[in-house]
Design a protein that fits this description.
735 residues; Glucose Oxidase, domain 1; eight-stranded parallel sheet; 16% strand; elongated
């Protein structure tokens, strides 16, 4: 096929061979043009002059119906079918029996293979299987250039090639461009046809056993690459891995003469084509389940893993979704950007991306089907957009914006050692958030005065087993050593809800994990786990200041119980003659609305409090911040949200309790401006937000701003974001 003969001769040879093998009087190949039209490229049995002249519009005729449905069609009397389209130039009048199969690539029909016979006959199941196998091989050979050269393929849509713009949501700020690397990209089958069918059946069977064993290990808390993902998701994986229909489809595909890899690829393409047309979100989600299983099965067959891949230096990672461990598996210095089909700004992948200062855009529907490995893409974390295969002028525009952004970063760097004092002389304490050892590299660069929130759960989420006492102690000591004299506030383990660790999961089920046993509730229910962490913190901070904060306190009794465990661990250390921290401060996170009406009882018991705006607002508005269907149902700059913050600040001022805001709001200039107008003077922002927020602080006249905010809090609007922006511009605040 790949000889020196012209492309048309090779195609003519192919259709002649297929016609003979299928005992058909007609065999034709149609390929999809970039316009969507299906063009007759070769035929055996129809009139030769129709080649490259006959074109069918999208969805036209039986050929168009095969491409539209991405499924084979078998008819004994094609002319009587309502979709039949008569083209006199083809001379197909005498042919009644029709069998067509799509040429599938990436779940898309790039063409159609058709065989026809004069007699009215029904093609049997074996013949349908045969033409599907041939169509699969044909699709691969066309796409690889074995049949057609680059010139002939120039206008053939074997894969999306036109520039596209997708609108999503910005998860991590920044701009980047580079070449696509598909997360757990499917390993392309090198060999499509089996030399020994029995050997391939054995390989497939063993790979399926290995896949299921891998999932079982994850369910039991053993080794696995999905550590940190939901137990329920893993169980769903196991259920689908055992799905009889999926397993049977794989087995049948191998029995048609395909290699194990080609069988998996074929079944995956069939699922893509069928499920992608479904409107039901649940059914579409099942596509992703089977897609992930197929990718993992291909990797089991190939013995490959993401961490072993040789990536280009300008990689843009593309995935359906990611866990924090998944992103950290890749060489950080080669990942320029991240594009996700799903996720949310509060997802773990987004948080890690912000910590690593990797631009990230999510909620890009249909992203993976629109991209091929190596495509050039732009990640716009400022507007929440992705540009696929951008035009040169678009790339130049983004490069110019990146230069401007680089200059801004240089300006922020100049402010590193400048105290955060407002234009009217008010001192603001500006800390940064952290959770990974890599975050510590940003502490000096940002000029933050300390770490206002160290998320200890990340160490647990990226580990495949429960971190031991010595490893926890080592991390906390590293954090304190790096911070030096700067304060660090450690938040105890905040897991549960959307952060479930397989090695800590039980057989119990919660219908609503976000409102279930998570954070401090889990720590109090499993005091051994919390005491182990407190012991590590006390050991690491020996002779130094230690600030410990408990998350998701909903009642005063919960805080009392948690603080008692601190006292127990201090007594344990004293009995053994161990050095304790020189100064111990214990605080609570205000994330549950219930505390808003019990601050008078809580605050006297605490040394400080910190407001976790992410959770506080999702509970206030009954909208899951990790659920993209409802995460935008409220604006933190709404009067109810701001009034709640103002009430907390007032109560803390009355009792002299230090209070800070450590949610994502503190890292965005406009939102941070609102916090300052409410009276907050302690903010803890993500590393990338410290510079912009400090610039805002230096330009703000708080006395005037607070007068303006007082008038806005009484608004009946769902959001006063626009009014705040107007106020900031009027006062020349740099937002």
């Amino acid at each position: 096929m790949a000889g020196a003969s012209p492309a048309q001769d090779r195609l003519d040879t192919v259709v002649r061979i297929i016609a003979q093998s299928m005992v058909a009087e007609v065999c034709s190949i149609y390929l999809r043009r970039a316009s969507g039209d299906l063009e007759l490229f070769a035929t055996q049995g129809l009139k030769p002059e129709a080649v490259h002249k006959t074109r069918l519009r999208p969805g036209e005729g039986l050929v168009g119906e095969v491409a539209r449905s991405a499924a084979p069609i078998s008819l004994s009397d094609a002319p009587s079918h309502p979709s039949f389209s008569y083209r006199p130039e083809t001379g197909e009048d005498p042919y009644h029996a029709f069998l067509g199969a799509p040429l599938l690539r990436g779940g898309r029909a790039i063409g159609v293979l058709v065989v026809q016979n004069r007699s009215e006959r029904r093609y049997d199941e074996e013949e349908v299987e045969d033409i599907q196998t041939i169509a699969m091989v044909l699709a691969e050979t066309v796409a690889s250039g074995e049949l057609l050269g680059q010139e002939e393929l120039r206008d053939i849509e074997v894969a999306p090639h036109r520039p596209e713009r997708l609108k999503g949501q910005a998860f991590a700020e920044g701009l980047a461009y580079g070449h696509v690397v598909l997360h757990e990209a499917p390993v392309p089958p090198e060999n499509l046809l089996a030399e020994n069918q029995q050997v391939e059946e054995i390989r497939l069977r063993e790979a399926l056993i290995g896949l299921k064993a891998n999932i079982d290990a994850m369910l039991e808390g053993g080794q696995g690459k999905l550590a940190g993902q939901s137990f329920e998701v893993l169980e769903t994986y196991r259920m689908f891995a055992d799905d009889r229909g999926w397993n049977r489809s794989l087995e049948e595909a191998v029995r048609t003469g395909l290699t194990a890899e080609a069988a998996v690829d074929r079944v995956r393409n069939e699922h893509r084509a069928r499920f992608a047309k479904a409107r039901d979100p649940y059914i579409k989600e099942r596509l992703h389940d089977f897609e992930d299983l197929a990718n993992r099965l291909l990797r089991v067959l190939a013995g490959d893993s993401p961490g072993e891949r040789d990536l280009p230096p300008d990689s843009i990672l593309v995935a359906r979704n990611l866990g924090p461990a998944d992103l950290l598996e890749y060489p950080r210095h080669k990942i320029r950007g991240l594009l996700l089909e799903e996720g949310s700004a509060a997802s773990h992948a987004a948080i890690v991306a912000r910590a690593l200062q990797i631009p990230c855009v999510g909620r890009l529907m249909g992203l993976r089907d629109r991209l091929s490995e190596g495509d050039l893409v732009i990640v716009d974390g400022e507007t929440g957009e992705a540009y696929l295969r951008p035009r040169p002028d678009m790339l130049s525009a983004v490069q110019s914006r990146m230069e401007v952004r680089s200059h801004r970063q240089a300006e922020f760097a100049k402010l590193r050692d400048t105290p955060a004092i407002t234009a009217d002389g008010q001192r603001i304490t500006l800390h940064t958030n952290a959770g990974l050892a890599v975050d510590l590299e940003n502490l000096d660069a940002t000029g933050a005065e300390g770490i206002g929130l160290f998320r200890t759960e990340f160490q647990f989420m990226v580990s495949e087993e429960l971190p031991r006492l010595d490893s926890q102690t080592a991390l906390y000591k590293l954090v304190l050593d790096t911070a030096g004299t700067r304060p660090v506030t450690f938040r105890t383990l905040d897991i549960g809800g959307d952060k479930v660790l397989p090695y800590l999961e039980t057989t119990e089920r919660e219908e609503n994990p976000a409102l279930g046993r998570r954070a401090i509730r889990l720590g109090l229910d499993r005091p051994g786990l919390l005491r182990l962490q407190l012991r590590a913190l006390l050991t690491a901070a020996a002779g130094r200041e230690l600030r410990v904060m408990f998350p998701m306190i909903a009642t005063v009794d919960e805080f009392r119980a948690a603080r008692e465990l601190v006292d127990v661990e201090c007594a344990w250390a004293k009995r053994r003659g161990r050095e304790l921290p020189a100064l111990l401060r214990v605080g609570a996170m205000i994330e549950c609305p219930s505390l808003l009406w019990h601050l008078d009882a809580l605050l006297p018991l605490t040394d400080f409090v910190s407001i976790g705006t992410n959770d506080l607002f999702q509970y206030m508005f009954a909208a899951d911040r990790t659920n993209p269907l409802v995460s935008d149902r409220y604006d933190p700059m709404s009067p109810p949200a701001l009034r709640a913050l103002a009430e907390i600040q007032r109560k803390c001022a009355d009792t002299g309790t230090p209070v800070s805001v450590c949610g994502e709001l503190a890292g965005r200039p406009l939102e941070a401006f609102a916090l300052l107008t409410l009276g907050f003077t302690r903010l803890s922002a993500p590393a990338g937000g410290v510079g912009p927020v400090k610039r805002m602080i230096l330009s703000a006249d708080l006395a005037a701003a607070r007068r303006g905010m007082a008038n806005l809090l009484g608004s009946s609007s769902a959001s006063i974001r626009g009014e705040l922006e107007t106020l900031a511009r009027k006062l020349n605040v740099a937002i």
